[in-house]
């Protein structure tokens, strides 16, 4: 008989999420659970400690995440079983289960960093002020553009493109509240599209029809409006958009073509894998390989700026360490599906990898998939390391790596999350649906 345990991580979130997050406890089979303190598995305490140091200490976030991942791995190896078994065999089995997702994430983060540099050097961002309003509505238009791009492109790329444009049109002075707005817009844009976010793609592969997540755009649209307007006003007050492009700037259409080629190959590989070769998608990081194939081929005509990789690698290693640590948590099931649980999942996804949360929800069933897609997608925007889009953007703007500053200046993001959820619930109601197949 499974027992419910209240992980410290979720209890820490209860102050933000209220009863929903406090009730979102993990189910751990007693026969396979390791040591616990007051009913809380010790790996949760270790993970909560790592997240606390990342959020509030001045130690290197990358080193903190790496040492934390190592400590949790060694603990599991010696004293607690992995989901795939105990000891070295369990560790190898778990690594074999996770490596494709981690490799894809690494390849996308590094590849999109090079894509962003191609886009910047195409001079498209420099000429955009000719076509954008020069008051606070200019930053607002950019956030809407990021939202639109993310509906058909991975949210990492959408956030990086948005950050690249912002760096140009705001003279390298981008407000942290606006950076939070870019991440929120990229995550909102992918919430209702099965090709716009990893989590919605997972739902599609598991049998959720594209139309079953489409209504997430009701909440996402409200959330975009709620956070985009104050974020745009913050940015305008901090550093207004440039009124005119520099003289003599010419668009490098070859680099524009390279960006389009990389994006087209990425989208094509994603759609092809999900529609024709879904069974093989877990065998190899095909999506990441497609991005790098496009980069290497296009490098024959325009050399990528390889010096961008060290900085991108630091952010990627940080995120991979957190994702690996999250995958080691003994979370076997979620409480029975309901809208308060879905609301709480969004808050939890701000600090806990949303991929395993989505996998658990799919395994359990009983959710309104549009609500779940919105929660796991947009919820990660509330903290800078809560989503891969935020981590990728922090590589361009290191000043954003502060939970306190992110929450202080990006206050509109959690507000937008709750209001978006509330509006969708009021207009559409909670309607759990079985998967299409």
Tell me what you see in this structure.
The protein has helices at 8-17, 19-23, 42-56, 61-79, 87-121, 124-127, 137-150, 155-169, 176-190, 198-206, 216-238, 253-275, 286-298, 309-327, 339-348, 354-364, 369-378, 388-396, 403-409, 412-428, and strands spanning 3-5, 26-28, 36-37, 40-41. It has 437 residues and is mainly alpha-helical. The protein has one domain. The strands form two sheets. It has a two-stranded antiparallel sheet. The chain has a two-stranded antiparallel ribbon with strand order 3-4. Helix 5 packs antiparallel against helix 14. It is globular.
Give the SSE map.
Blueprint lengths: L2 E3 L2 H10 L1 H5 L2 E3 L7 E2 L2 E2 H15 L4 H19 L7 H35 L2 H4 L9 H14 L4 H15 L6 H15 L7 H9 L9 H23 L14 H23 L10 H13 L10 H19 L11 H10 L5 H11 L4 H10 L9 H9 L6 H7 L2 H17 L9
Antiparallel strand pairs: 1-2, 3-4
Briefly, what is this?
The chain is mainly alpha-helical. It contains 20 helices and four strands.
- What gyration radius follows from the Cα positions, in whole Å? 21 Å
State the end-to-end CA separation.
29 Å
Topology as a string of helices (H) and strands (E):
EHHEEEHHHHHHHHHHHHHHHHHH
The percent of residues in helical segments reads 55-70%
Number of helices: 20
Quaternary class:
single chain
* Unreliable spans: 1-31
Counting helices, strands and paired strands, the structural category is mainly alpha
Morphology: globular
Major sheet details = 2 strands, antiparallel
How many strand elements?
A: 4
User: What count of domains describes the coordinates?
Assistant: 1
Strands ordered across the widest β-sheet: 1-2
Task: Report mean pLDDT, rounded to a whole number.
Answer: 84
Strand % is under 5%
């Amino acid at each position: 008989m499974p027992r419910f345990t209240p992980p410290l991580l979720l209890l820490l979130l209860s102050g933000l999420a209220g009863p929903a997050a406090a009730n979102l406890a993990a189910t751990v089979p007693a026969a396979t659970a390791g040591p616990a303190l007051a009913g809380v598995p010790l790996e949760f305490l270790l993970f909560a400690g790592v997240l606390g140091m990342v959020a509030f200490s001045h130690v290197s976030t990358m080193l903190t995440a790496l040492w934390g991942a190592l400590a949790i791995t060694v603990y599991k190896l010696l004293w607690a079983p992995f989901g795939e078994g105990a000891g070295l065999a369990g560790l190898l089995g778990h690594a074999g289960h996770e490596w494709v997702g981690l490799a894809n994430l690494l390849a996308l983060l590094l590849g999109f960093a090079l894509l962003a540099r191609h886009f910047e050097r195409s001079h498209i961002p420099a000429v955009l002020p000719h076509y954008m309003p020069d008051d606070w509505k200019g930053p607002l238009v950019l956030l809407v553009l990021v939202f639109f791009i993310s509906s058909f492109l991975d949210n990492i790329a959408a956030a990086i493109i948005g950050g690249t444009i912002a760096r140009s049109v705001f003279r390298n002075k981008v407000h942290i509240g606006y950076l939070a707005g870019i991440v929120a817009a990229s995550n909102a844009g992918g919430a209702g599209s099965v090709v716009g976010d990893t989590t919605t793609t997972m739902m599609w592969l598991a049998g959720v029809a594209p139309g079953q997540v489409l209504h997430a755009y009701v909440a996402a649209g409200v959330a975009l409006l709620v956070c985009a307007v104050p974020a745009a006003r913050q940015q305008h007050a901090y550093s207004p958009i440039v009124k005119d492009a520099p003289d003599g700037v010419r668009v490098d259409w070859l680099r524009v073509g390279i960006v389009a080629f990389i994006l087209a190959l990425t989208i094509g590989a994603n759609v092809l894998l999900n529609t024709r070769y879904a069974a093989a998608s877990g065998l190899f990081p095909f999506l990441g390989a497609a991005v790098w194939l496009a980069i290497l081929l296009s490098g024959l005509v325009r050399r990528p700026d390889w010096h961008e990789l060290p900085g991108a690698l630091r952010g990627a290693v940080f995120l991979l360490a957190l994702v690996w640590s999250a995958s080691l948590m003994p979370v076997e099931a979620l409480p029975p599906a309901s809208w308060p649980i879905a609301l709480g999942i969004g808050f939890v996804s701000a600090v806990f990898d949303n991929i395993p949360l989505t996998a658990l929800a799919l395994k359990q069933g009983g959710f309104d998939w549009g609500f779940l897609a919105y929660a796991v997608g947009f919820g990660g925007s509330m903290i800078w390391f809560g989503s891969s889009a935020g981590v990728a953007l922090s590589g361009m703007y290191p000043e954003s790596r502060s939970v306190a500053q992110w929450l202080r200046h990006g206050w509109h993001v959690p507000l937008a999350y709750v209001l978006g959820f509330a509006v969708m619930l009021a207009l559409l109601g909670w309607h759990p649906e079985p998967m299409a197949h």
